[in-house]
Design brief:
This protein is α/β, with parallel strands linked by helices and 296 residues long. 35% of the residues lie in helices and 13% in strands. Strands 1-2-3-4-5-6-7-8 form an eight-stranded parallel β-barrel, surrounded by six helices. Helix 9 (200-209) links the parallel strand 6 (192-196) and strand 7 (214-217). It is elongated and about 100 Å long.
Length: 296
């Protein structure tokens, strides 16, 4: 008899875990915290998949891997390309793909066309889009047509120019706006909502108020889950470090030291060394021809 591992358990041994679905995530409201990280490549996706419930192909890829100053320059083609790579490394976690700026705001019909393309070409299970009250009709339109949506309120990076920078949201009277946004996306059918860079008391209030899981990033430990950019966690992205990030490794510093050591070895002709080289097989030397053969 085969043993089915619950979708919330990590992949262990030779037992294949049941893939996490949007309803699985929704059912985790108030339960064990939901673990989420971003990924943009196959090797990193494999590592994240082994430990996380949700893998997000975030539009943060524009800043992290493409050197863009914000997420606004990320295109739908870029998101699809990275999501296809991540799909190759994900077996268990829920794969969610960000809808980039300009791909869904115009109308629910535009959002459906582009979200359907993302799902068809990447085999993801859900999409994520930013916005609250203003996006409620779009979320309702998508979910009614079979596209699961993870919402995103608070600091929405695609609206960074409107906010005047990456500033904390929800302070003072502004808290009512963020709460209304969270309630609107929940009522519209989102299965979870990301709360980014809002005050901790407000994040706690929203988590109590909405019936769907809240996923915090710069919010509160009382959220139903947490998400970070994987390159921030690993210390690979060094342009800046948000206050809400905890670095669990300094791989960027280690990589810099490794590259410097390689460069020094090449310049000193220490690399490649004998153990890195290939020898030639012994050559067979033909015997000299006897010119007397044949009576010559």
């Amino acid at each position: 008899m085969s043993v089915e591992v619950p979708s919330t358990a990590p992949v262990t041994g030779a037992v294949r875990a049941k893939p996490v679905t949007p309803p699985d995530v929704a059912a985790r409201k108030g339960g064990e915290p939901i673990v989420c990280l971003t990924a943009y490549t196959t090797p990193v996706a494999r590592m994240v998949d082994a430990h996380c419930d949700v893998v997000l192909v975030g539009d943060s890829v524009g800043m992290v891997l493409h050197g863009l100053p914000s997420t606004l320059g990320v295109t739908l083609d870029m998101m699809i390309m990275h999501a296809q790579a991540v799909r190759c490394g994900v077996e268990r976690a829920l794969l969610v793909v960000d809808m980039p700026f300009g791909s869904y705001e115009e109308s629910p019909a535009q959002a459906f066309r582009n979200a359907a393309r993302v799902m068809a070409e990447t085999d993801c299970a859900a999409v994520k889009l930013e916005g609250g009250v203003a996006m409620a009709d779009t979320i309702r339109f998508l979910t009614a047509r079979g596209i699961p949506v993870m919402a995103h309120v608070g600091l929405t990076p695609q609206a960074v120019n409107a906010f005047g920078g990456y500033v904390v949201q929800g302070r003072g009277d502004d808290g009512a706006r963020v709460l209304a946004d969270a309630e609107a996306v929940a009522q519209a059918g989102a299965f979870a909502v990301v709360l980014e860079k809002i005050t901790a008391p407000l994040a706690e209030e929203i988590t109590r108020a909405v019936p769907i899981p809240t996923i915090g990033i710069g919010a509160s430990p009382t959220c139903d889950g947490q998400i970070l950019v994987v390159d921030d966690v690993l210390g690979l992205f060094a342009d800046f470090k948000p206050r809400f990030v905890r670095r669990y490794a300094e791989l960027g510093r280690d990589a810099d030291a490794a590259i410097a050591a390689y460069a020094a070895d090449v310049r000193a002709r220490r690399f490649p060394a004998a153990e890195h080289l290939f020898g030639d097989a012994p050559r067979t030397v033909a015997a000299p021809r006897d010119r007397r053969a044949g009576g010559a």
